[in-house]
Every structure is written in structure tokens, then in C-alpha cells.
Amino acid sequence: MVIAALRKLLPSYFPAEWTELFAIEQGLLLAQEMDLPQIMLESDALSAILAINSSNFEGEAGHLVEGILQSKALFSCCSFSYLKRDYNMVAHKLVQFAKSNLCSHVWKGVTPPFVSHLIVSDLELCAGGSLL
């Protein structure tokens, strides 16, 4: 079941790690807005997930990591995990759609129609035990 999905066009170009951290931050903000007490965020950006999980505030993106960790404290349970891109095609498709449409959009309680088939594929992968 999809609870919410978000695609957001950024106002400029940023390094890949920053973009991933912005996406995680926006996911947290959406979850807060929806009053979700427990969330699990997945990303195919290993460096971003490692920075968050190790509370690494060093470097140019340290302020983004710090903000994410402050937002994390508002949830009763909040985890961040790395997921290979092959198993995160829904997020990839949302990014591609945002790039081609030059707009932001939020879906609450409904599945974006252009990713429905990918969600079914992801569920089949999980049920088959192929997801590690």
C-alpha cells in the first residue's frame, strides 16, 4: 500500500549527494505533515545513508545531515537504509518524471499511475526472497 509519494523539482543543480539528502529531508517533512509516527526511508545513495547513520556532520553537506537527524527525533521510530537502485525503481521513475515535467507533485493515499507496475514488481521481488 502506498501511503504517499512526492516528486519535487529543485530550483538549481546540486551535487548528487546533496540531491539525495534533499530527497530524504523532503520525505521526512512529508511524513511529519501526515503525522506518521514510524517511518523507514530507503535510498540508493550509500554515501548519504552512511553520513546520516554515522551522524557525520563534516563536509559541505553536514548541515543537511544535521537537519535530517533533528527531524528524525520527531518520530517514535525512524530508520534510514541503503537499497540498491535495482530495488528502488519507483524512486528512480519519480525522479525521471519530475525532470521531464518540470514540476512538483504530492500523492497522498494514492499511487502515482506511472509507477503502479513498478510497485507490483518490487512486491514480487520481496515475496520471492530476492531482495537482500
From TrEMBL:
Give all residue intervals belonging to the RNase H type-1 domain.
10-98
InterPro entries (alphabetical): RNase_H-like_EbsB-rel (IPR052929), RNaseH_domain (IPR002156)
GO molecular function terms noted in the UniProt entry: nucleic acid binding; RNA-DNA hybrid ribonuclease activity
Please give the Pfam families that the UniProt record associates with this protein. Answer: RVT_3
Spell out the PANTHER family in the cross-references: BNAC02G40300D PROTEIN, REVERSE TRANSCRIPTASE-LIKE PROTEIN
Protein name per UniProt:
RNase H type-1 domain-containing protein
Origin species: Quercus lobata
